[in-house]
């Protein structure tokens, strides 16, 4: 599966789910189960590459503002949800996290837990329990670390939309 095919599948599911994350997970599961195991593994690899690309202090700051706080687990959920919204939204958010102020990205959606587990479950099921091979975890986010007191100043558009005072 190419990266373009990965994004086409993500966007197909996103469009059909109409903002419902549970439905998005069900649709992704259905679509992945139609693929051969090697394609599911490729999808999974692309998914984690995107997760790693989004592992930045700047995006974590945006997640922190949107959610009124953000643990490392919630940041993983946030990045998964961001991926689920399609390539354009994902790339825009990486280039400028404040672009998230221009879309409907509330805290309930932002920290949805589950989308990231769908490829793993499908892969386990199709492989007879072998699942995704372990991958090295990134130690630290890319970019510049921030202080909570600086967030409203660093991302004023997000702070205003989500009424973040810091």
**Cα-based radius of gyration, to the nearest Å:** 16 Å
Number of helical regions: 10
Beta-strand percentage range:
under 5%
Main beta sheet: none
What's the rounded overall pLDDT mean? 91
Which outline best applies? Answer: globular
Distance between the termini: 43 Å
Order of helices and strands: HHHHHHHHHH
DSSP, total strands: 0
Count of discrete structural domains: 1
Question: SS-based structural class?
Answer: mainly alpha
| Helical percentage | 55-70%
Low-confidence runs of at least 5 consecutive residues: none
Structure description:
The structure is a single chain. The chain is an all-alpha fold and 166 residues long. Helices cover 61% and strands 0% of the residues. It has helices at 3-17, 21-33, 37-53, 57-67, 72-84, 87-95, 107-110, 118-126, 151-154, 156-161. The radius of gyration is 16 Å and the shape is globular. The termini are far apart. The relative contact order is 0.16.
Blueprint of the fold:
Layout: H1 3-17, H2 21-33, H3 37-53, H4 57-67, H5 72-84, H6 87-95, H7 107-110, H8 118-126, H9 151-154, H10 156-161
Gist of the model:
The protein is mainly alpha-helical and 166 residues long.
Task: Record keyword descriptors for this entry.
mainly alpha
């Amino acid at each position: 599966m190419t990266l373009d095919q990965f994004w086409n599948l993500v966007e197909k599911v996103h469009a059909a789910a109409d903002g419902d994350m549970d439905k998005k997970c069900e649709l992704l599961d259905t679509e992945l189960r139609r693929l051969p195991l090697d394609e599911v593994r490729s999808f999974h690899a692309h998914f984690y590459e995107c997760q790693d690309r989004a592992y930045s202090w700047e995006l974590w700051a945006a997640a922190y503002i949107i959610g009124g706080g953000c643990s490392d687990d919630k940041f993983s959920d946030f990045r998964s949800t961001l991926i689920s919204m399609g390539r354009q939204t994902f790339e825009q958010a990486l280039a400028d996290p404040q672009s998230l102020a221009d879309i409907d990205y509330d805290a309930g959606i932002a920290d949805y837990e589950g989308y990231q587990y769908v490829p793993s479950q499908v892969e386990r099921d199709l492989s007879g329990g072998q699942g995704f091979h372990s991958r090295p975890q990134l130690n630290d986010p890319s970019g510049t670390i921030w202080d909570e007191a600086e967030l409203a100043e660093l991302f004023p558009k997000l702070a205003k939309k989500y009424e973040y005072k810091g």
